[in-house]
Fold these 3 entries.
Entry 1:
Amino acid sequence: MHRFRSTASAFQLWLGSLLLVACLLGFLASLALFAWTLVAREHRLLWISLWMLGLTILSGIIHLVMALRVRCPLCLGKLLASPQCVRHRRAQTSLGSYRLGVAKGVLTSGRFRCPYCGEPCECASRDDHPGSGSRR
């Protein structure tokens, strides 16, 4: 199983995955709250839904920064970005999205399958595990 070279890369993948899920859930929640605001006609709910939408946009921007930095440890494909490359036949999807498939695997089990090379990878650095020293 492939691992990242540094702990920072593994953390950036974890944080990018968390922000992707937060962005999606925040967008759905702010949309539902905005719809309820139109029904209830309360000013306070309008401001809350606008703040929630602003936080969702901010988390989306931070997610994009993380998505452009994190790459597969083997093939160097962008895991949380969508470069329109050919996907592997065993690539996992979640709700039709390859990025959500990677994020789901990272957040639930700490492992994922690269959507480009199809190799299983672990969201950890090579130095985290005993016996996985550098090969010379």
Note: The helical segments are 7-40, 43-69, 98-108.
Entry 2:
Amino acid sequence: MQLQLPAQLPAGLPANPRPLLLVDVDAVSHGLAEGQERTRATNATVGAALETAQTAARSFNADHYQVLWAASTATARCHLDLITRSANNLWAIRRGLDGADKALLEELNDLVDARTAATRKWHAHGRPHADIVILVGQDHAYAPAIASLRLLGIPTWILQPGRYIAADLYRAAMHVTPLTRALAA
């Protein structure tokens, strides 16, 4: 499924920006099941959402992009065949209800630290490992890191997997696109 690029891309974004795709698979699995009798979406629905997220990253005409899929152990068990079928992707599987959040927050905070260190130098050597972040998630835990990235010049496009998104995350993001709308089209 093709998502339309956000209309308000920052002016300073390179011609071929390097996207960093961060996916909270717990949020995808639970969010896409909202309003149904089940608590988790089917493998087919989650797989379609993951492919849509990858299509969003490819839509920037980037030569390559990095991906981190993050899931709790319970979600990993539920969607094990999706994990084993994904080639050349990095999965972070963590214990606990907030396992996926913690893995993605580590990556976001590393990016904030890297950009902060680069701006402190007179001449930054090379570009950061991401020019734009595409986050598939909806939790308020991501908001401080996303706000920091925005202040440092790295915009974040949120693909919202459920009906709701934390207000502070919504405000911190450059753009928010409901993933359910993209999957329905």
Note: Residues 19-184 form a domain with the Rossmann fold fold (CATH 3.40.50.1010).
Entry 3:
Amino acid sequence: MKKVLVVLVALLLVMSSNLFAQNRTAKGQIELSGGVSFSSSSYSYDGQHQYTMTTFALSPKIGFFVIDKLEIEPQLLVVSVSISEEGGGSGTASNFGGIFSLSYNFEGESNLVPFIFAGMGFLSNSVTDATDLKTSMILPAAGAGLKAFISEKGVLRAEAFYQRTTNSGGEEKLIDNSFGLGVGFSVFLK
């Protein structure tokens, strides 16, 4: 993991020179971005295997620059979770929703563009053999990141975020406070 971070930091430093045209975050620009993630986790209690959880998530987003440096970024969230319990039991959960964010891009003279964002959203929840699930509300979703232009239109993104979800997993009054890191790729269309 340390080697990957060192390579990413080195790549960002190399790209910090002024190689491409400026004003990439001007009014009218469109940015397509997103990510896909997959994880598999094994849980045990007191040395005994309990269950395995596999998660697949898809999160495309499209950004519209409404004025210079200010971007509206609606994001689609599609998450599928599969749980296999010790002894043969299994279950699935699906979440579908979105987050509506505003981001401000601090474009300067280099190919590195820091940004901050804040937004809100929702998730519908569907769990095997569960009824009466509530809609999860996401408020706030906030963070900061860095866009590194690797070409005139291609961008590597890295961000740190905080997200608060009420009725997490469809359970009433269950609150999820998440801190995370994300990486992705963007393409500017104009």
Note: The helical segments are 2-14.
